[in-house]
Hints:
Layout lengths: L1 E5 L5 H8 L13 H16 L9 E8 L2 E12 L5 E13 L4 E13 L3 E9 L8 H15 L7 E5 L11 H5 L9 H10 L2 H6 L5 E2 L5 H6 L8 H9 L3 E6 L6 E6 L4 H4 L2 E7 L7 E7 L6 E10 L4 E4 L1 H7 L6 E4 L1
Parallel strand pairs: 6-7, 11-14
Antiparallel strand pairs: 1-2, 1-13, 2-3, 3-6, 4-5, 4-9, 5-8, 7-10, 9-10, 11-15, 12-13, 12-15, 13-14
Amino acid sequence: MKVVRLVKSSDFKNVEHLVKHSGKGMTTMPKTPQEIKERISWSEKSRNKKTNKPNQDSYLFVLEDNNRIVGLSAIYTSVSLKKPSVFFKKSISKLESKSLNFTKDLDVLSLHLCKQPYSELGTLFLKPAFRGKGRGSLLSFSRFIFMSAHQQRFDPTAFVEIRGFKNANDESYFWNSFSNTFFNLDFFKADEISYIDNHFIMESIPKYPFIIEHMPRKVQRVIGKPHPNAMPAYSLLRKQNFRTNGLIDVLDGGPCLEAKIKDIPLIKSAELFPIEIKRNINFDRFGFIANPAIDAFAVVKENYAFDKDKKTLLVSAKVAQALGLETGSTAQIN
């Protein structure tokens, strides 16, 4: 059975093995044993905190497939609380000449500082051999299910940064023909530093707008275009009311998606019911079932039934065991 749950300190070795398959390009993915320990500790500290307000927290989730950890995802809160996030913003600059009696709209990219705190979905990684069969959507959507159970822990707005387009040779046109002119660094080094401290971006990039039509044609075509491997995640997020907000990653040109948490369908649809363990009945429904408790959070996507008279979820013993629930326990469906 496939289960998503919050990471535990005992997962260290399995997570360490998993991240070896992630490769380059995922700056929020912990790489070294020390980074993995710190990320697990950060998640456990966030889970166990007494206050329910967002305060630069991190919640790290693992996907278990038949007791093997094969995926990771995360939520970060209060991003930009202490230092602004840096993007390019795509907008229209209007030129007007009264003497020549003409106006012209120019698409431009300008450096943009995001100072309003937001929660960010990130670190979505699934081991290549385990992609497909609903694992990706379970791993991604489980974060919304956690947010719906504990909304007070999150900022009103959620962001997702989507990886920018690269060709079959893993080349970024946006970086190679535009962004790297501002930095004396290779792409992966710049990406790594930007995750730690993005102040160097503000120091290196001019503050004036860049006219898009003056950029190389191949750069123009990929501004705000997702990486081919990111398209499934992009499509899933669009179905959850995430929309592009005009913000563009400074290094790879990838789009930023934004949604109000209260408008995300999976969050709005959350309902709580007691469960009853049943055998040999027709489980005629299929969907997300969760143990919403902060100290035992877990999600599966499995068959179940609903007793309208008792207002009770009917689940198999296998599902109940995977979620750490028993008859009479409260479960959440989305």
